[in-house]
Amino acid sequence: MAVAPALDPGRKRLVLIAAIMGSFVAGLDATVVNVALPAIDRDLGGGLAGQQWVSNAYLLTLGSLILVGGSLGDVYGERRVFSLGVAGFGVASLLCAVSPTIGLLIAARAIQGVFGALLAPSALAVIVMAFGPTERGGAIGSWTAWSGIATVVGPFVGGWLIDAASWRWIFAINLPFVIATLMLVRIAIPVREPGPTRRSVDWAGAGLCAVGLAGPVYALVSQPQAGWLAPRVLIPLIGGVCVFGAFLWREAHTPDPMLPLGLFRRRNFAVGNVQTLSMYGGLAITFFFLVLFLQQVAGYDALQAGLATLPSTLVMFLLSKRFGGLADRLGPRAFMGGGPVVAALGLAWFTRMPPDVTYVVDVLPGLLVFSLGLAMTVAPLTATVLADADESNAGIASGINNAIARVAGLLAIAALGAVVAATFTSSLDTSLAGVPLTPRARAVVAQAERQTLAQADTGGLGPREAREVSAAVQHASVRAFHTGMGIAAGLVFLGGVVGLAGIVNPRRRVAAEGCAGGQIVGMPQDVGDCWEAGAGLPVVALPARAT
Q1: 192's torsion region: left (phi>0), alpha (psi -120 to 50) or beta?
Q2: HEC states along 85-144?
Q3: Among 44, 159, 351, 433, which one is least packed by beta carbons within 10 Å?
Q4: CB-based contacts of 128: which residues, under 8 Å, 6+ apart?
Q5: Could you give the C-alpha distances from 368 to 344, 350, 422, in angstroms and in order?
Q6: What percentage of the chain carries pLDDT values higher than 70?
Q7: Which CA distances in Å does 536 have to 182, 241, 325, 326, 520?
Q8: Which positions ≥6 away from 222 have C-beta within 8 Å?
Q9: Residue 132 in contact with residue 24, Cβ under 8 Å?
């Protein structure tokens, strides 16, 4: 196994800053692009399809290659792959900034996704390499908190740059951060010396993995416009699943797999990833539909809707590191079990949201409770998943967890979009059953059904008909939103049940003077050390051993 040298506290802080800055650049770009889409369309054209692919090209390559990126970090070293990911992301950002056509911009965004797939898992692997097990939770909590700031800064910085200069600056602004990150990498992150055996790259497995993930990801990003039964959704979805099955078969039989399937035989790793699937599905649903409801039903503008979610980021920023450190000391099980339950209670608050939203009464309490539960969960969850992998597999372990989180979000939004739309249509049909409608009113209803969460545009309707249609659309929107929030709360709560039932607090070694002569039954006691109880194991008192 490759060996990384021990680092002093000051150098560890620099490693953490480098990992944060690299992730911050990628997170900033992911959030700021959505604000820029109207300006990009005005400048380069392409219409709605062009706007969608400016966003989706990045998601497609990132989701397809993130497992490959994690594996490369384990083979070639976290430092090298992280540096390549950061530098390549910077070059791709420059290509985005100077793209003269919508086609070239989409291609540059796809290249950004390729290097993002190298950057994302290797950033966490760098933290695993630098910080020991007892420090890792706090470090990951800091990384989570600071990286999350990008989701708030992005829309504000992007809006200001677009208004003051051009959309091209939202990509060009990455370059100073990229240069600073690379300098920190060179100064702070050590080269991990290779172990006695050098792993080879499973290129055939990497190809099968990329194609196998690309098909379902492409289907998921295409489904909202095309529908589940469209050939361009069904063919890549089924084909991708079959190819990914072939990838798993190969990994089970090749002597040096890209994805060591034995990782999933480790209890905390497997349970943590199941919890990630459930939690991040609910998380994606929450922010997607909450922002839509506030804008399209409650009448918030884009800036107000963005500000509405600001408390969530602030809570994560203030508390993630604290809960990560507590989980290091007390064990992650209580946090991974209790945190999602608290978060689900916050989401349940939104199932009573009225159409005339009063922010302090209807949004803020639920958002604060939800964010508290999220802060309790995220850093312990990530640290637990990575702790159950060997350091030589930290990159692929991070890649697996990243891939599951992203696919969970895509799948949840795509699937729940169909459920919310069906609930909206059913409620609208029930409310208007037996009500005679003019052709203009039927057109208004049809437009509302295409938008789902909406306010009815009743211009041109008579007063009575306008009231009836407006009330029916509003009622259907609120009911559909409540359904979506109820499902999100259920998914998050299920994540808590999985964590509470499945996660086992790891045993930790502590200094001899800290354990009062106790030793876990059946466990060896090394000179000067003892074992601290975990997972309910019995402890017996033993005489202190001489050093």
Answers
A1: beta
A2: HHHHHHHHHHHHHHCCCHHHHHHHHHHHHHHHHHHHHHHHHHHHHHCCHHHHHHHHHHHH
A3: 433
A4: 136, 386, 391, 394, 398
A5: 12, 12, 30
A6: 85
A7: 45, 40, 21, 19, 10
A8: 230, 232, 233, 236
A9: no
3-class SS of residue 527:
coil
Residue 3 phi/psi, 5-degree rounding, is -120, 135
- For 319-329, what is each residue's pLDDT tens digit? 888 888 888 88
Q: Which amino acid is at 226?
A: A
Say if residue 195's pLDDT is above 80: no
Distance between CA 317 and CA 135 in Å, rounded?
18
Residue 515 carries which side chain, given as an amino acid letter? C
Q: Give residue 520's pLDDT.
A: 41
Q: Determine the length of the chain.
A: 547
Query: Over the stretch 49-102, which tens digit does the pLDDT of each residue have?
Result: 677 678 778 877 887 788 888 888 777 888 888 999 999 999 999 999 999 999
Long-range contacts formed by 435-443: CB under 8 A, 24+ apart: 435/468, 437/465, 437/469, 438/462, 438/465, 441/465, 441/469
* Residue linked to tokens 């309707």: 461
* Helix axes 47-76 and 78-98, enclosed angle (nearest 10): 160
Asked if residue 487 has pLDDT above 90, the reply is yes
**What is the torsion angle, in degrees rounded to the nearest 10, for the CA atoms of residue 422, residue 240, residue 389 and residue 340?**
0
For residue 215, give the amino acid letter: G
Determine contact, residues 35/98, Cβ cutoff 8 Å.
Answer: no
- Distances in Å between the Cα of 246 and the Cα atoms of 165, 255, 407, 495 are 49, 16, 19, 29
